[in-house]
């Protein structure tokens, strides 16, 4: 099992005043190595996303604005943080990390990105702390290079993957499934191939039962060559933005359901971490670490 991690993901390495406060990108690898789930040899540093790879998903006009720093104030507000070239470079490493994880998973079964899950980015704009859409870029590259014919995106972040849904709205070879907080961001939802909105404060039993109803029938219907799984932990009851009621144990069970379904059917799976904004950083790290522990259990 391989894990994509680059120092530029790190909270501490972003320019002062442009930091997106997610210390988990530093703490999570440390925890996984300390406890023995992973070794330093399990990690790889992704390369830099090329301009050609960007332009197979994002528009030339949007990419030009990112390169030149000519985004409007409205576009910067929608993106969620101040513009800085270092953030653009960070996004290029993150997206390339997800792509390289998918390529590794096709050969070896499973790979995970410490970062990623930037599902709010549209082809023509950034949104919700997302500049490039890593799953969209990955899916488009796999199809462009004829690595696969059918992709299933399983997005279990608390927020709907609106950018992903829009990008693939007329692309049957990429099936988008988003199970998210019905009343959470974004206010205006796009139409995924399958959307399941769950109510505020939903707890483990109902959340997991809802997923169980959809998951296996969907995989059997789509018959994907690879699954791209967004394992956001903002479904936790402790999350500042999530508004759901899932426990850390329930979040781990969710991951077990997804990994087990793929493992039993010998479907490669590439994973991005997505959101996690609990009050205590230990809850975020523990929930994300569970995703890696479960992946290790099923895929070694």
UniProtKB/TrEMBL annotation:
Domain (Histone deacetylase): residue spans on this chain: 18-289
CDD domains, per database record: HDAC_classIV
A Gene Ontology BP annotation from the UniProt entry: epigenetic regulation of gene expression
Highest rank taxon of the organism: Bacteria
Matches recorded under Pfam families: Hist_deacetyl
Example of a GO MF term: hydrolase activity
Keywords in alphabetical order: Hydrolase
Residue ranges the record marks as coiled coil: none
InterPro entries (UniProt xref): HDAC_classIV (IPR044150), HDACs (IPR000286), His_deacetylse_dom (IPR023801), His_deacetylse_dom_sf (IPR037138), Ureohydrolase_dom_sf (IPR023696)
Family: Belongs to the histone deacetylase family.
Name used for this protein in its record: Histone deacetylase
